[in-house]
Structures are given as structure tokens and as C-alpha cells.
Design a protein that fits this description.
Elements lengths: L1 H18 L1 H4 L16 H4 L3 H63 L1 H16 L4 H34 L13 H18 L2 H8 L3 H16 L4 H4 L9 H11 L2 H12 L13
Helix pairs in contact: 4-8, 5-6, 7-8, 7-9, 9-11
Amino acid sequence: MNDRSSRRRTMKDDETFEISIPFDEAPHLDPQIFYSLSPSRRNFEEPPEAASSALALMNSVKTQLHMALERNSWLQKRIEDLEEERDFLRCQLDKFISSARMEAEDHCRMKPGPRRMEGDSRGGAGGEASDPESAASSLSGASEEGSASERRRQKQKGGASRRRFGKPKARERQRVKDADGVLCRYKKILGTFQKLKSMSRAFEHHRVDRNTVALTTPIAELLIVAPEKLAEVGEFDPSKERLLEYSRRCFLALDDETLKKVQALKKSKLLLPITYRFKR
């Protein structure tokens, strides 16, 4: 009896144990279904060779960009210079056309005089051929009128020639031969530029080419801004070098500090805002 009761108890205990299994034990989860979403640090770690090549590429791109910007600014200045030269040439062409028209009009005005004189002489000779005395008087009157018209025509020619060739000597183009001449011409053009507020009109007023002034500008700027550097460059000797070579040496003598002063004076219109024709 005791054995049967113990078996029944164990069976009951077993049954209760089997029923309580799903509630007491934790569910078994497969660890393979969980994946890490955070990236590994090893994936972002690049080799040192790749990093150095990328840095070199960025430096080269920056250098090319800087060179492109400098070239763009130089081209912009060149365009402005060419536009001013174009305006100057247009003014010269307009002046030439207007002077040619005036000469043609003067020529046309002076031409009909002899024709009228010939017509008057022919009419007087043909209309009164029957009367010798009247014919002679008409011929003498025609000759007097012809001589008077001839004198007027000569006076007109003389006045036109004086107007054509009587240009003031101050407006004639002069060739500078030394540094003092370059400085004197530069100051004259600068004064005209400050009055007229136009580079092309200032060059036209003094009958000087823009490129000629630009090639000798470093000499004048060195004498105005930094005359103490003239000892480094030396005096100009026409027997040893040309004026263009001396101007290039003056350009190379302009250091960064002097160039900053020059640019500041150009912005304030105290120097001619003209670009250099030399390169370092």
C-alpha cells in the first residue's frame, strides 16, 4: 500500500511538473538571428598609403584652382586693357573720318569757282560779240573778276593749309630717352587722367600709346614710391642697355611691400591704374 501510494504521488508530481514546464522555463532563442547593426571600426580604417594619396590629390586640386583663379583675374584685367585700347582706336578713327569729310567739303566748295568764272567769260564774249568795245570791256571785267577769285582761292588754300598743319607742338608725339623723360611723361598723363577720369582720353590727349606707357611704368613707379631702391637698380646708361631692359630691372626691384603701396596709390587714383607687361 505504501508503494502504491508513493507511485501515485510521484505520478501526480510528474504530471504537475510536466504542466508547469512551459511557464517556469525561459524560451530558447537562437543566437544566430541577432546581427550587429553597428559598423566595425576595421572597415573605416584606411591604409596610410590611401590617405596620403587622397591628401596629395586634394592639394593638387587646390593648387589648380588657385592657378585658375589667378589666370581668370589676369584675363579680366587684359580684357579691360583691350577695351580701353579699342575705345582709343575708335576715337582716332572718328577723328580721321571727320577730318577727311571736312577736307572733302572744302575741296567741293572751292571747285565751282573756276567753272562760274568760265561761264561768265563765255556768256560775256558770246552775248556782245557784235560790239568790239563792249566785248573788250567785258573781257577786262572778266579778267579782273578772275584775278580776284584767284586771290580768294589762294587765301582759302593758305588758310586751310595753316589749319591743317598748324598743330601745337605740345600735342606732338615725343620719344623719351631716359628715366627722367619717362617720369615727366608719366606725371603729365597722370595729371590729365585725374582731370578727365579716363585712361584712354588721357593717352589720346598726349598722343601716347597705352602699351608704350605700360612698358615704362615700373621706372616711374619706382622713382615715385621707392626712390631709395634706385641705388640697387643703378642709373640708366643708354650705351649699355635699352630703356625696356632698364624698366624690367626696375620691375624686378619692386618687392611685395612696395607693390602693396603701389596698389593702394592706384586705388586712390594717385597713380595710373595700368597693368604691367612684365612677369616674374
